Structures are given as structure tokens and as C-alpha cells.
Structure prediction request, 718 residues.
Amino acid sequence: MIEYTAIIRDTAKKLLKDGKVDVFIGYKKGTVPMMNEPVVISDPEKVDTLHWDSLCGLNLCNYLTKRKDKIGIIANGCNSRNIVTHILENQISREQLYIVGIPCTGVIDHRAVLRAVGNKEVLDVQEQGDKFTVSGNGFSETFDKAKFLRTNCAVCTHRNPVIYDEMVASPVKEQEGVDPFEDVKKIEAMDPEKKWGFFTKMIERCLRCYACRNSCPLCYCPTCFVDESKPQWVGKSIDPTDTMTFHIMRAYHCAGRCTDCGACERVCPVGIPMRQFTKKLNKDALEYFSWEAGLNPDARPPLDVYKPDDYNDFVK
Amino acid sequence: MLKGLLEHIGIEPGRLNFSWISSAEATKFVDVAQQVAASVKALGPARYLIKKRAEVA
Amino acid sequence: MTNKIFTKEEWTKALQGLSDSYKVFVPVKDGDFHTFKPMNATKAPDFDFQNTRLSARSLVYPQAERMFEYSLDENDPEANIIKETPKDYSPQAIVGIRPCDAHGFKIVKPNFDNKEYRDPWWIQHFESTVLVGLGCNQPCSTCFCASVGGGPFNKDVLDVLIYDLGANFMVSGLTEKGEAFLSKAQGGKAADDAAVKQAEALATEAAKKVKADVPTDKLKDKVINDLFAAPFWQDVGFACLNCGTCTYLCPTCWCFDIQDEVLGKQGDRIRNWDSCMFPLFTLHGSGHNPRDQKFQRVRQRFMHKLKYYVDKYQGGVQCSGCGRCVRYCPVNIDIRQVAELMNNY
Prediction:
């Protein structure tokens, strides 16, 4: 996907020069391999900072919330679905946006790459088509990107943006025959004790740094429930019950809204796979309401409307 | 969906119950309350997601 | 100064023996990264790592620590009396701590232990700790300890320094505390001149590898208000998520928040690490928040580390150059670049 970079720069330059947008939001190349930094550009002469590769794994929609200006932004499948959700939830208006669509072939799982090289320090990554080469002190290895996709990208069925003003390339083929919920089904088959054990172990290392919450474009409340002090809903230490409460509540606030973009897992400093919470909600949203978030700017989300035929088997 | 999530995490089915009872449905209220009490009793005391004294250093 | 040679197996055995006299914490591989865990028979220490994901700071200054407790039960004769929670201050050893992280303790010391204030918990934990450092043969590309007064084999603060010579470790006692620790270690033999030379060569070699050019020299001469009002803060902070990754992984961040937790009639006063990245950090009781914008919080972190601390304690910057915030910041905000911006402003 690195070849999109030049097109993104040209597009941004044109948009800024023509005054179609006040700012352009994209990525710039990171100072550390496998890390890229979101950036906002307002000077058309500075568009060469912009960069795109298969390691741009955050969600740029996060930077749109309540902005007042006209914004150019790049968006792949999941990011565009969050933009739709943002529009639906009145966090930004469609008229403010010029969306440069990115047909996405998936983002590389940097942790899987590190594992593959024995957790040695990676000093350089070069992307060539569907392969990439990582190198460091005394090693250089080339991998197939398809084998190193992030777990959410590996099961993604919405790689192309659902909303855009122009595309940087023709749409890519959507994946077929993938089961996005294989892992959820495995947990569903466990008994309660095993389930509790699984999730307790999973979040054991949580530092309560809230990177998962803050990287998520869905989390835009002016004051999060964990930061409320009058009343205080949840304890602020790293007591396991409080930490679990945080994770459950964070996930539930994403019910029917999560696009499985994977930003939460990408940013976690201790590698917690917290998508296991939201994926269950995504599965239920699909099963009970035939709903996948952010696909249609004209449809209200299921937890936002009442329909007489809503799923209600759980009501006694 | 909340029920689904909590049961996914390990809260036993039967512990979390939802109902819609009008103020005019006294009998339904009694029935549901009895059902809920019976199903929760059968499960015994809750083991998970119980806030105890903070486990800190 | 004692220099002893242990084979790697002997060293692990020696540490097991030392567990009788010390709580021995060692680096253990836990999933994708290393973390300090108490030594036990089930999981062997693993000294083959660049650095632990989290610094060792929580072993002296736990993320959540009960300070006081009290009873609200009127039948209790001691109801409503706040009592200090008894703590275990028996000797502990952090084995395999990197010199940068040990340097971190030196950096935070003036905050917890100064003429005006003495933090009893931090001081007692610190004083009961033996720091058994492991020199860095292969510093990370993101390390810059040598730019901030440290180095890959920096002996400051350490009680013992371990040199990884390949098949063997050379272990040097540096302080009385360290010598006492070593004297209890079983096995090993006195190091010969060749080993000492090899160790010195490793240290020289490593010093060449580490980045030493992050500029901090002009910071002390800058005017606080100029830096505060500098035009780059919005840009620096644009990508910031305001998560606590940088501050929680940092060996030199010390801020905490005090919370009372009451459960029934039992009350606890707990202090938890806090982070200047969080809006709640500066929220006043009135509802006013003097740092309600993201760039202000980002600015605070860098100004504190690279200016306020410099001015207040006159001992350099509040950063040990471990590079964790550089490596793990989810949006790649790089303190090395910010230091350069500030230093050259």
C-alpha cells in the first residue's frame, strides 16, 4: 500500500491549494520502525510529510470529533465506517469532510512481526507489494504480508471505504468465506468458570492507561465514567474487579458501534487482546439486528431506535 | 446485548434477568420475582465481579 | 570491589539460594515481553532481553499502594482512627535491572526524599532494595541514556553490576549493600584479569553504540515562559491520545493520586499512580480544569521533564533515556525530537 503515498500527497496538496479543505489529516512516517504518527497539515507545501504504508493502524476518525473546520482525511474501510458513525452521532458533518478513500489490503501486526524475528529489535521495514522485509542487527527477513495481518484485518470484509469523495486507487477485492467470529464461538462454548478465567487472565496485566479507550473514535464523552468523581463509578486502583468493570463498561459503550478497526489492540502497551469484548457485541449485533456498524449513513443504529420486531427473547 | 456480553465474560445464565412489567401487572411481577429469586438461589452466591477490599500493595 | 565469575546456570542457582535472605525479583518472559517477577522454582529468570516492558519502578513505588486504613464501625473502639498500613520492608533485590532504570531511582529521589519532605513508603522500599544491574551489551536504537547522564554500564545507583560475557556473568559488587548481597551468593569464582578486561571492553563497545546526541544542554538557560508559549506545542500534541502509556512505562514519572475506598465499614486510603496526560489530573473541586486541552497536558509532560525539573533540582533532566516512551507511544510522539525542539528554541 506504500504506493498510495505519492497519490495521497498530490491529492492533499491540490485540496489545500484549492481551498477545498483547511486541513488534511493523515499519517507521517514514524521515528521508530513500524510506528507512524497521525499528523494534521494546513500548508500545501508541507504535504511531503504525508505517508501511508501497511503499518498505519490507528483510527484517524479519532481526530475529527467536534472539529469546526473543513477537513481532508484519508480513510480505509474501517476508518470510513467510523466516519459514518461519527456523522450519525453528530460528531462531525459530512459537508465538512473531503474523504480520500484508501482501498486497504490490511495492516501488518507489528507484534507478530516481532515474534517472528524472536523479539529482536527491528531497525528497518521495507514494504514491496504484498511482501515486506524487516531487518535489524544481523538479520533480514522477507515475509508475505498476508500471513502477518492483524487479526481484525485477516477477517475483514469491508476493506474498501464505504464513504468517500475520491479514491486513491480502484477498490480491492473483498475477502470472502472468512469467519470473523471463530474466536468468539470458542469462548461461547466454554462454561462460565472457564470464561471468567479466560477474561480475568486476559486483562491481568492491564495498567489502566486507557490507551484502548483513547484510541477509539467511539470514545468521545467529555468525561468518561472512569474519570467521574461525583459519583465515582469505579475504583481507580488496579484492583482486578475495578479493572474488569472498566473493560466491560468500555466495551459495552461500543455496542452496535464498533467497526473492529483494531486500534485498541494496536495501542495497548502490554498487548491485551481486548477486542474479545467488543467482538462478542459485534457478533450479537449482527445476529440479533443484522447490523454491522457504519455501513450506511442513512440507517439509525439498532440501540438507537425501537422496532416492534426487535430481538427480545431475553425479556421474561 | 448487555446480558450477552456479561454471560460471555462468565456471569452465569440466570443471574442477570430482564423483564417488562406494567404497574397494572401485579401477578406478573410476583411470578417474575419468584422465578428470578429461584434461579439466582439455584446458582448460589455470586463469585464473579464482586468488589472486595482493593487488592493492592 | 569483588569481581566474581558465574556460569549462567550457577548464577540462577545462586539467586535461588539468595531467595532465603532476599525477595529476589528477576526478569521473566511473560508472553511477548519481559517483566520482573519474584524468583521461584517454576519459571527460570531470563537475562536475554533488551529491557523489560515496564520499568522496575513499581517494585519500589507500587502502582497502587494502601497507605492508611480505618474502621467506620462504631462498635470498634478504634473507629474513625486512621492507622498506617503495616508493610513488608524486608530486603529485596532487583536482579537484571538496566542501568537506565536504576538511574531513574536517582532522578526521582529528590522528589520523595528531600529536606522538606520525606515519603516514608518510597524511602523504606528504596532503602530495602539492592539494585543488581545488568549492563547493556546491545542498547536499543531508541536508547539515549548517554545523552542524559547515564550509560549502558553506568554504575551510579547500582549496588551490583552484572556483565554478560557470553557463557558467563561477571558480577561486580559496587557498594556495601551490593557486597553483602554477593557474599551470600553461593558458587562462582574470583574473576581473573582476562574477564575484567573483557567486561571493560564490552562497556566501551556499548557506550559507542548508544545515542548520545539528544540535546539538553541549553534547557537550563531558557526562560520558562518562552518555552511555555512556544508555537510548537499544538503540533507536538496533535496525535497524542492522552493515554498513560508514556507516564506509566516511565522510570522517572512519580505523580500519584490519593483515593479513599470504603467498603462496608472498612476504609482504605490508597495512592495510585496518576498521569499528567489525564484530564482528571488537574480537575479542581470547583469543576474548573486549568489544563483542559490536550496540548496543555502534552506540554506539561515535556516541560516538567525537560524544564521544571531541570530548574528545580539543578541535576539535569527528568529522563533516564530508557526510550520506552519512544518505543511504545501508540502514536509515536518522540521525546528526543521534543527535546531538540525545546533545546534549540
In short: The mean pLDDT of chain C is 95. The longest helix of chain C spans residues 294-313. The two ends of chain C are 45 Å apart (CA to CA).
